[in-house]
Amino acid sequence: MKRVGITTTIPAEFIFAAGGVPVDLNNIFIADAAPMGMLERAERDGLPRSVCGWIKGMYGAALAANVEHIIAVSDGDCSHTRSLIEILEMEGVKSLPFAYPYDRDYALLKRQMEKLAAFFGIAFADAEAMMRRMDRIRKKLHRIDGMTWRENTVSGFENHLYLVSASDMDGDMNRFEQKVDAFLAEAAAREPFPHEIRLAYIGVPPIFTDIYPFLETRGARVVFNEVQRQFTFPFDTDDLVERYRRYTYPYDVFSRVRDIEAELSRRGVNGIIHYVQSFCHHQMEDVVFRKHLAGIPLLTVEGDAPGPLDARTRLRIEGFCEMLGSKRRKAAS
Amino acid sequence: MKTLGVDVGSRYVKLAAFDGEELLFSAKLDTIKFYTLCRHAGKVDISRLPVLMEKDFAYKRVVSTGYGRYNVRIEGSAVISEIKAHTLGAACQSGLSDFTLLDLGGQDTKVIRVRGGEVDDFVMNDKCAAGSGRYLENIATILGITPEELAWHTDKPLSLSATCAIFGESEVVGAIAEGAEIAHICAGANLSVAQRLAPLARRYGSDKYVVTGGVALNGGVLKFLGEKLGAELIVPRHPLFNGAIGCAIEAAAVTA
């Protein structure tokens, strides 16, 4: 079966419908036993120190993952992706660009999807049928998300892991669905977590390996993973194009703000962790979040290379959780 | 009751020894030396510190904060975050309860908004230690002067663009090669640190800033920073020991 690399969430319906296996290169990189090796390979081959760790990790992953093609998000993610696919081209990895139109133009987005259909030799309707099959699994992921903040029986890391996997469904949706089913059954039998502080995690998924469990040692649990949730398309529409129009991540920051605001109040969040990747353009959005989400304390955490949290970041997180805990106690008394 | 506060910084370990509300003595020693003296059989035993033995100081409770404590915890010590330690110390030393605290350390810059004597919000510098105490130390070393000598220059500041602690060195070497006066280079270094600090400090704009940490001893940086912020900068009596004082206060409060 044809393995197709992806650089971030794209309409994977087209790959699955063509009998292919989507492979999210980010997941290959970060879930590797030694992700640092992939990043080092990229630097050894000359990629600059001042380029985002995810891009360098994807470079290593693309060469290690044995993929025939890469669908690269050339608009709606970061411009480093364009240079990445050009460099990979020299290594014999072919790629197809996929552009999310910044203005959410319906016809343009549909045209991009039609290109995918033509590339994989399938009809548009085949992808639509696949969407309905994938939605069955996505609904279960929404259930996991609900159990994270309503029943409080799912940890922040579990929420992250299952939701982030929605981009490629581990390349095998049947096996992924079984895994999700088993987890749902296990979590349903749990007692609610006792953590006092409820956090939102906004921004791209973390390159740190232990941020969620560390937060839990500080009495705080993530009850909202912003971008990971978006990967599951929690929107009420059966229109495949509309689905990818409502998906917030590739477009403007203000639609992300509206989505975050709604979830913060629904989920009773006490504090926000805004994760930013070193050398990433999304760092600039910190200005917007600090202004628009001003009612809730926000801690910006920056990560560079894969591995555990560094001592400085741990100190900051600890100070932040301590402050939120004391605010809560004060408000309660 | 005798309490001890220990602030393990990136450059120095600071100690504050209290009897009740009275600060008996304070001491600082190099962080590497601290671990060399105290680390024993995988533990950190501060009773081995010569300063405590010399003063014959037997404390009832010790509270610590700072780096390294995740790896090696000080024996018998309760632990609080640096943010809390510095807030407690600054509120106690300044007698204020609503202010913005600037803790300017060797690597870290903390800006803490304090309301009613408690942490309301805080920001810290990003992953880069540009414009920190270490930068000023490096510049002083290159110029062959002490950080104290560097601290008082504010006249005709030379424009220095690289606040990076490493690249700043070559910039200064270049300035010397071009014949710039040492005093103007010093003033330039102080100005560049203030420039770097001001945007972060403005996050929590205030008419009163309490300034602590080693950089609070640098009069040049304070002058430029005060001008930029247009606010009163209050340096408490023991700026370097502020975190340690906060720890000792916490030690007394918890037992009380």
Which strand-content bin applies to the residues of chain B? 25-35%
Name of the CATH homologous superfamily of the domain at 3-84 and 241-255 in chain B: ATPase, nucleotide binding domain
CATH hierarchy, class of the domain at 3-123 in chain A: Alpha Beta
Radius of gyration computed on alpha carbons of chain B = 19 Å
> Stretches of chain B where pLDDT falls below 50 for ≥5 residues?
none
Strand order of the largest sheet of chain B: 3-2-1-6-7
The 3D shape of chain B can be described as globular
Class of the domain at 3-84 and 241-255 in chain B, according to the CATH hierarchy? Alpha Beta
Assembly status: heterodimer
Order of secondary-structure elements of chain B: EEEHEEHEEHEEEHHHHEHEH
The major β-sheet of chain A equals: 4 strands, parallel
The CA-CA distance between the termini of chain A, in Å, is 61 Å
Description:
- The complex is a heterodimer of chains A (333) and B (256).
- Chain A is of the alpha/beta class and 333 residues long.
- Chain A has a domain at 3-123: 3-Layer(aba) Sandwich (Rossmann fold), CATH 3.40.50.11890.
- Chain A has helices spanning 13-17, 25-30, 35-44, 53-64, 80-90, 106-120, 124-151, 156-164, 173-188, 211-217, 226-230, 240-246, 253-267, 286-292, 311-332; strands spanning 3-6, 21-24, 69-75, 94-99, 197-202, 220-225, 271-277, 298-303.
- In chain A, strand 1, helix 1 (13-17) and strand 2 form a beta-alpha-beta unit.
- The longest helix of chain A is centred in the middle third of the chain and has 28 residues, at 124-151.
- The mean pLDDT of chain A is 95.
- Chain B is of the alpha/beta class.
- Chain B has a domain at 3-84 and 241-255: 2-Layer Sandwich (Nucleotidyltransferase, domain 5), CATH 3.30.420.40.
- Chain B is built from nine helices and twelve strands.
- Chain B has helices spanning 31-38, 50-54, 82-94, 133-143, 147-151, 167-177, 182-201, 219-229, 242-255, and strands spanning 2-8, 12-19, 22-30, 39-40, 43-44, 61-66, 77-79, 99-104, 109-115, 118-124, 208-212, 232-234.
- In chain B, helix 3 packs across helix 9 and helix 4 (133-143) runs parallel beside helix 6 (167-177).
- The chains are: A alpha/beta (333), B alpha/beta (256).
- Chain A binds chain B through residues 278, 297, 300, 302, 304, 311-312, 314-316, 318-320, 322-323, 326, 330, and chain B through 67-68, 70-71, 80-84, 107-108, 118-124, 126-127.
